[in-house]
What does this fold into?
Amino acid sequence: MQPRRRPRDGPQGSDAGDHPRAGVRGARGQRGAACHGEQAGHRAGSARGLQGHRRRHALAARSRRAADPAGAARRRQGLSGVHAVREDLAHPWRVPLPEAAAIQTRLAREVVLTPLASSGAGAPALAAGVDVGYTKDGRRAWAAAVVMDRSLAVVDSAVVAGEPDAPYVRGYLAFREGRLTLDALQALAVEPGLIFLDGHGTVHERGLGLASHVGVLLRLPTIGVPKTPFHSIDHEPGPERGDYYVLTKEWGAQGASIRLKSRVKPVYLSPGNLVDLESSVALALAWSSGRRRVPEPLAAAHTSAAHARNAALA
It folds into this structure.
C-alpha cells in the first residue's frame, strides 16, 4: 500500500467483492449456493439470453418514453443513447455459480486498462452514474441512470423497474443487477463517455466486478466506486478530499482507497474498463463536488432510484 499525494482535480466546468449495499439497496435476499435455480429456460445459451434481454429492454424503453416526453423528443431528433451489448459476449443472467464464474473469467480477458483524460481534449464530456434500489425483501428493484455534463448539470436520466436475477452472493453482484443496470443505461437518450457504478471493477477475485462486467459488454469506460473494500484493509487515506492510498491485491489488481469529501469515509475505487487506476482517481475527483462521498452522477442515481422505489411503494 502506498500513500499518494492528491492529484489536481479536473475542472468542474470545462464483491466486499461486489458487496452488499446499505440504504437504498435494502436487503438482497438470502444468500444461495447458486445464482438462481437451474431452470432449462434460463440455460438456453447466449442467443436466447440476448433475445430475452432485447425484449426486456424494449419494454423498459417504451415505459420510459411514456414517462419522459423530453427524452422521446430527443430520440425523434436523431439523438442516440447507449449502444447494444456486444453480441459475441452476451450471456444469460440466471445461471448457477460455476457457470457465472466461467462467464466472469471469459469476460475478464476482454478488459482493457488504458489512460483516459480527466480534463481537456479527450476527456469525457458526459458521465453517468447507475445505482439500484430494492424493496426490503430484495425481490423488486429500480435501476436509475443519471447523466451529467462537466458542470455537473443533469442532461438525461432513466429509471427502469424489475426483478433482480439472483440473490446476493459475494463476487457475483453483476448476476443480481447487471441486466437492470444495462436496461437503465440503454433507456438513455444520450451515450455517456464514462460510467460510475456502485460495485467493484478489476479488484475482484476473477478480475471482473460489476463495473468491469458492464464496461466490457458496452465497450465503454467504467469505474467502480463501492463504499466497501473487496477485502479488509489496514490503512486509510489522509483526512482531506483527494487523499488516497493505492491498494494492491495479491493477484496484482490495483485499486485505491480515496476520500472524495473531506473527513468522511473513503470509497474504494478501481478501474472497470477502458480506463486505468491513475485516470480513475483523477476522474472520480473531476466528477465530484466535494459535498458527497461519491461522484455526483452516482449520488444522483442513488437518489433517483430511491425516489422511484418510494413512489412505487407509496
